[in-house]
Specification:
By secondary structure, the chain is mainly alpha-helical. The protein has one domain. The chain has five helices and no strands. The radius of gyration is 15 Å and the shape is elongated.
Length: 101
């Protein structure tokens, strides 16, 4: 499973980022414009909130597990989650957990 988690983390980085890069290419580096685009309609706003709640939940889980096991490298999943997305942060965390003894 270790390599599946890593493959999903890579895919969860490349695929969403390709869409973000395309948006920035078309609209310039306008973070507030991107946030506005995320809330273009009720469906996209619902998806943004779904992912936000999942990201917060994942962050709490990562913090609890990393502190409990004193596996500080697992904290890398938090910036991956908020900098890229849950699609990267969750499989990255699962990959990093595979190195526990």
């Amino acid at each position: 499973m270790r390599w599946l988690w890593l493959a999903l983390a890579v895919w969860g980085t490349i695929h969403p980022m390709s869409w973000f890069v395309a948006w920035f290419r078309d609209n310039g580096v306008d973070l507030m414009g991107m946030v506005d685009a995320w809330h273009a309609n009720a469906a996209s706003s619902g998806l943004v909130w779904d992912l936000t709640i999942a990201a917060v939940t994942l962050t709490i889980w990562v913090l609890v597990e990393a502190i409990r096991a004193r596996r500080w490298v697992e904290l890398l999943a938090i910036p991956a989650t908020f900098g890229i997305g849950v699609s990267c942060g969750l499989p990255l965390f699962l990959f990093l957990r595979t190195f526990r003894n």
